[in-house]
Records
---
Amino acid sequence: MFKKLFFIVLIAAFSGVCLKAQNLRYSSDGKTLAANWEIFYGRSNNVSQFILFDAETGKIKMSFNSNGHSLNDSMFNFTPGNQNLMIADRSSISVLKMTADNQIEVEDFENQFGNYDKNLVAVAPSADGKIYYKVYSDELIGYDILTKKALPEEAKKPSAEGGEFLAFDENANLLVEYENKALEQSLIVHNLATKKSNKIKLPYPFDKEKKGRFDVQFSHNADRMAIRYETNEEKSQISVWDLKTGTSVAVFSIRSLKEKNADDFYQIEHFALSPDVKKLAVKIDDRYEDDLSNLLFLWDIATKKETLTAAKKYSVESFADDFTFSPDSKKLAVSSQIIL
């Protein structure tokens, strides 16, 4: 299986700097790969660019300066049509448009300065391309692409009531909210099209002093999702859930090699669910000083068999800072950090 998986590694050379691709995302047709590229030099100097690559050749198709977007909080997504890029941070949103002569036009939307202190969770365009959404930890805001203004209050979708929004699917339809009540942890999946919500009770104990951390990713057609569950006791696992039945179909974890205790596991830093839900890519936390921190785990979800790839073949300082599957699930784009 692994022979069929190709890696696109984003590496550059620039003397005396730290190079890092912060985010990776494929266009829906798989022809373009976008990255938020950061270059750090000196104590406080940095350059941040959004770069679009040709996914087959690796050549740069377009680059754009961040134009004031927060370096550590910016998110982006492709608009319908695969040519334009929607960029947002906690307070602003812009759309980069490629013209016929490969120039860039920038459309700025109405700023939401009141939301600057909120945590930004996701950005996504609606399937019909009429609305761009921003998901905060406690609120979902839609922007009309014609007026470039936030939708009026009565047109807004669900707001988290005591919970926390964790994820939004790529079709801007399913919104996941984390909730804990009466010491029970649950995920509520809001369907914006049907305006119905389903609750999934999670089989994890709740401890007020040792709260768990959850991250969620959807499959391409949003019928399954992968949940990373992590505690501050270095317990970490990923479960894959069937949203139609509300049941877990597979659980994955990486047992610690340094400890004899059967309950000790490595904490998972990054993960990616393939669009066809056949593969799961996982990277453990870089704090572990052993060979596993330079490996990328690839699981076959049906058989639970795994394969590995090592960082040293790419000659980088920090391996797999981020990674994402192509829409056809046959490629995995991997970003790595270089310190020169």
---
Amino acid sequence: IISVGQFHLERKRHILLLDAVRKLVPKYDIRLTLVGHLKSENSPNFQRIMNYIHSNNLDERVYIKTNLEYIQLQREYCAHDLYVLPSENEPAAMSHLEAMSQGLPVICSDSNGTDDYIREGVNGYVFQTNALDDLTEKIEAIISDRNVLVEMGCQSRTIVEQNYLPTHFCSQFNDMLKTVSEHLV
């Protein structure tokens, strides 16, 4: 599992995702990579994350990667099977769209402004914000069946290719401008 989000913001809900992983570890051989921008390892939120990892014996299950360049982040997506964005009140995250473009199923909260990239049960799930049990169930629904995981990842990639490539966006934008200009004349 991979998650991308700045470590200094409380709304990123890293601890919620760590709780879900902790609950799933007895049943599944899973790993979590948290990727994010970090100004200082002394930041209180980052220290809270590290303390949680250590106190819950997740040191062998959770990896932290900070301040990655874009190409490094793309490699991380490719090295993982599932993307989870646990943030609350996320205005317009793009990380799950990046993960989808690399063929990953995605999970995000229902307070993510771009949760409509996810087609429920097709390429991922949307969970109720801050609901640990709901998040855990959604993760388990994907990781419990390798065929489901692979199919959802394929669907993510297809959704991006059909709807969100820059060429598609430009085409839609041009069509919109044409329609608007026709109505103004």
---
Amino acid sequence: QVRISTRVYETSNTLNRNQLINNVSNDLQEKFGLAEDQFRITGLAVLYNNMLQSLFDSQIKSLGIVFGVILLMFLAIFRSIKVAVIGLIPNILTASSVLGLLGILSIPLDIMTITVAAISVGMAVDNTIHYLYRYKVEISNGVAPSDAILKSHTTIGRAILYTALTISIGFLIFSFSNFSPTVLFGTFTSLAIFTSLVATLILLPLLLQSFKAFDS
């Protein structure tokens, strides 16, 4: 038996753990003629890669399930498929914008950054429920849609603004860390919460008025 140890440069910007492990496995079989049962690739890099691959897979499934549950919850609360779809849009926009920005900036998903989408969805759905319910109350009281939006903004919208800004600034504290994953986590979580705020106070009212939600 022969054991070969090597160190992986974990902080490299070009490191793709899964591809590296697959390349090593393929080279051992194709270039050295070893059978698959004649070698075993082990170590912390392999364990960490397996954990990340599991996180990636579960992230896709969990986000799909979460959006489905949110849609059903909106249906149960507001009893309207139109309102449920409208309420789901800010949540999808928030999660997709953050994950899309990570991809555009070529920032790899890891244990820290992969949790940002889940946090952003939780924040966005909370804002959406509060705003939708307040808007529904105003419409039920016979207020015109434009006035209902104005009243919703001056009541629950103000609370959403203060809460989102406070939490967003709080997460920005992580950006002063010396540990880069913590910096990314704090920065992108803060950005996700701010995106949720914009989607709730700008996009959601526009959708409610354009598609005449809660109109009898």
---
Amino acid sequence: MTDTINFGDTIRVNDIDFTFLDVDVNGGWLCITSKVWKRLKFCSDRRIYNNWTTSSLRDICNTEFLSLLDNRMLLSQVSDLTADNGDDSYGKTEDVITLLTCDQLRRYYRLLPNWGTFVWSLTPWYCGEPDGAIYVQGRNSDGTLNNSWAS
């Protein structure tokens, strides 16, 4: 048995399997759940549905899901909310539990598990109203990126 962990390896924390993706500049580990935890809408109750900052999914990740883990082991991460078209008006957020951006989905493509379903990213299709604020980018089960209606 070895004490080393490699990118793509599975790590179990409190009965939840995570896939190890990367190490940040401070030595923290970037991991993602190896299986879909819950099937949830990106946002169910806000006017601008595709903004992670006001997303109901963000609230659930940083309360209900976070309660399943040892918070002392977790570091926050700053996420860039730049839309697929380059619009950066949503800015950045800082969360302990977050989703990957489309850039990260591309970067870690070979390491990501196949969840067998569409999974959200936190990248909006584009920012603004009326029509653009309803679509969020995500990853299909075949690994391709696509957008879906956030609510």
